[in-house]
Amino acid sequence: MIRIVGYARSTFELCEMRFSQIDEGLFESDFYDWDGVRLQVGEAMFGHISHINRHLGMIEAIKGMLGLEGSATD
C-alpha cells in the first residue's frame, strides 16, 4: 500500500511542477493531441487533472476494501 500512496504523491508533485510552468499565454495556446484533435493547453490540463482524480478515487477504494481509514492523500 505504501508504494501506491507514494506513486500517487509523486504523480501529484510532478503535475504541480509541470502545471506551474504554464503561463496564461501558453494556457490558451492550441496544440494537437495524440489523436490529432485540436485542443488548448488549458483544456488538456483539466482533462489530465480529471483523469488523475479517477486514479485517486480507485486508490481510496482499495484502501477501504483493505480496511484502512483515511484518504490516499493523508
Number of helices: 3
Main pleated sheet? 2 strands, antiparallel
Overall 3D shape: elongated
- Poorly predicted residue ranges: none
Radius of gyration: 15 Å
Strand segment tally: 2
Integer average pLDDT: 85
Give the H and E element order: HHEEH
Helix/sheet category: mainly alpha
Description:
The chain has helices at residues 2-20, 24-27, 41-65; strands at 30-32, 38-40. It has 74 residues and is mainly alpha-helical. Strands 1-2 form a two-stranded antiparallel sheet. A hairpin with a 5-residue loop joins strand 1 and strand 2. Helix 1 (2-20) packs antiparallel against helix 3 (41-65). The model has no long low-confidence stretch (mean pLDDT 85).
Write the layout of secondary structure elements.
Blueprint: H1 2-20, H2 24-27, E1 30-32, E2 38-40, H3 41-65
Antiparallel strand pairs: 1-2
Helix pairs in contact: 1-3
